[in-house]
Design a protein that fits this description.
Radius of gyration: 19 Å
Strand content: 15-25%
Structural class: alpha/beta
Bound molecules: guanine
Strand order of the largest sheet: 1-11-8-7-5-6
Shape: globular
CATH class of the largest domain: Alpha Beta
CATH topology of the largest domain: Rossmann fold
Order of helices and strands: EHEHEHEHHHEHEHEEEEHEH
Distance between the termini: 51 Å
Helix content: 40-55%
Number of helices: 10
CATH architecture of the largest domain: 3-Layer(aba) Sandwich
CATH superfamily of the largest domain: NAD(P)-binding Rossmann-like Domain
């Protein structure tokens, strides 16, 4: 392998330590940021994420609550939980773990969250603020984490051609907005590709920075990457593997071994973008409290 490994675990720890320092300072004046995480049902991946989020809050000295509803919960029950959290002064940020069971309309749920507490940044008010470059927007944690990873690894985005594979509202679209903004970690020329893009490999080969969030294991192969490119793999997929004791292994959206032969830098899976996401969620919760206090 020739590429430098971008170590999200180490960078995530660095950011969480910065958040913890600020939380300690604020605790002196009796202020403790609080995060509520709502989980509906028993999706195994979601359970892992939700546990990690609660644990990370505790380690940063923050208050956290996890609210679990059964997979059969109605939309009304979930909306009632959100209303209660919207009104709770100990809760500065909340998120509803996605995906939600079929009987619940996710869009309606996300719109019920008070935009001032929407630390996922999925409410239309925050989406709009992000597009406008308003610094009070909550930046969705995954693309925000990718941007921080680039900045803190000394990777210049200014003037670079950043190609994003995937146009999801959680990653691809906010990623494009962050990278095109004027400022550190921005000023890139951005191309967003998706399932209908013509000649995808031809486009990805023009990327100085290639960010992949398509949800297909090992989709990006070595021939799709320009030698020297920086490759960020947002994917985390469970792939059947009889040789593993769990019966599966985790694979990114990038064929790691062959792409690492061409890239100048690459994120591993796991241990790349994942730990950054949790760190930025804590950062957003702190931002939510500081903005609430300033009002
Ligand atoms: N499911 C996958 N990613 C996310 C995320 O960033 N936030 C929430 N709420 N659910 C998710």
């Amino acid at each position: 392998m020739t590429a430098r490994l971008l170590d999200g675990a180490a960078l995530g720890r660095e950011i969480r330590a910065e958040v913890a320092d600020r939380v300690r300072e604020l605790a002196g004046s009796g202020r403790v940021p609080g995060l509520a995480v709502v989980l509906v049902g028993e999706d195994p991946a979601s359970q892992v994420y939700v546990r990690s989020k609660g644990k990370a809050c505790g380690e940063a000295g923050m208050h956290s609550e996890t609210i679990r509803l059964p997979a059969t919960a109605s939309e009304g029950e979930l909306l009632a939980v959100i209303d209660r959290l919207n009104a709770d002064p100990a809760i500065h940020g909340m998120l509803v773990q996605l995906p939600l069971p079929r009987q619940i309309n996710s869009e309606k749920v996300l719109r019920r969250i008070d935009p001032a507490k929407d630390v996922d940044g999925f409410h239309p008010v925050n989406v709009g603020k992000l597009v406008l470059g308003d610094p009070t927007a909550f930046r969705p944690a995954t693309p925000y984490g990718v941007q921080q990873m680039l900045v803190r690894s000394g990777i210049e985005t200014k003037g670079a051609h950043a190609v994003i594979v995937g146009r999801s509202t959680i990653v691809g679209r906010p990623m494009a907005n962050l990278l095109m903004q004027d400022g550190p970690g921005g000023n890139a020329t951005v191309t967003v590709c998706h399932s209908r893009s013509r000649d995808l490999p031809g486009i990805t080969r023009t990327a100085d920075i290639l960010i992949v969030a398509i949800g297909k294991p090992e989709f990006v192969t070595g021939d799709m990457v320009q030698p020297g490119a920086v490759v960020v793999d947002v994917g985390i997929n469970r792939v059947d593997d009889a040789a593993s004791p769990r019966g599966y292994r985790l694979a990114g959206d990038v064929a790691f071994a062959e792409v690492a032969e061409r890239a100048s830098a690459i994120t591993p899976v796991p241990g790349g973008v994942g730990p950054m996401t949790i760190a930025m969620l804590l950062r957003n919760t702190l931002q939510a409290m500081e903005q609430a206090d300033a009002r």
